[in-house]
Prior knowledge:
The complex is a heterodimer of chains A (114) and B (113).
Chain A: E1 4-7, E2 10-13, E3 18-25, E4 31-37, E5 44-50, E6 53-57, E7 64-70, E8 73-79, E9 87-94, E10 104-105, E11 109-113
Parallel strand pairs in A: 2-11
Antiparallel strand pairs in A: 1-3, 3-8, 4-5, 4-9, 5-6, 7-8, 9-10, 9-11
Chain B: E1 9-13, E2 18-23, E3 33-38, E4 45-50, E5 55-56, E6 61-64, E7 70-75, E8 84-90, E9 92-93, E10 99-100, E11 107-112
Parallel strand pairs in B: 1-11
Antiparallel strand pairs in B: 2-7, 3-4, 3-8, 5-6, 6-7, 8-11, 9-10
Amino acid sequence: DTEVTQTPKHLVMGMTNKKSLKCEQHMGHRAMYWYKQKAKKPPELMFVYSYEKLSINESVPSRFSPECPNSSLLNLHLHALQPEDSALYLCASSQDPSTNYGYTFGSGTRLTVV
Amino acid sequence: DAKTTQPPSMDCAEGRAANLPCNHSTISGNEYVYWYRQIHSQGPQYIIHGLKNNETNEMASLIITEDRKSSTLILPHATLRDTAVYYCIVRLITTSGTYKYIFGTGTRLKVLA
């Protein structure tokens, strides 16, 4: 299995809702990443997990809460989001945090906050 | 924050070589250059990476100048399916020793029939 799987593919949520995005890989990768991408902009790094521990938080608002329950799974919990949080949320993984090899990205979850 | 600069857009005729330049003049000696592409609304796809030698794989070639301040991604025979945004990335190392990609603005390549 050489894929990163993200679910759901699309999500519409209200500003008072709580929802979660899920990311899964079975390549034995030990680093996982969340990126946020607004329309016609490059992806922006949000979080980096290294061996299931949070190693980078790019000053992301607390309404985004990441979780890495095991080495194959990465979640992003969403609460009290704003319409400007609507974006494509991308998950990626790599062999380990310092590998020189590339990342494998999922296809993303397109989030709309209403 | 991005350490790379790329032209915002390029056109290429189908079947011709597409040469995408990238400037990374502040690159450090042990930093790799990575290229990814993103086809509309999909996740970025890894293409190739290199340190100082030229690299080739089944998708593309990467030419890095001797001073390592710039590189060129070459798609030897562009097809319509190569239409995408191409990102050149230099990986950063943080003060905690963790690596991270910072994407630049990318080049929107349009392959014309």
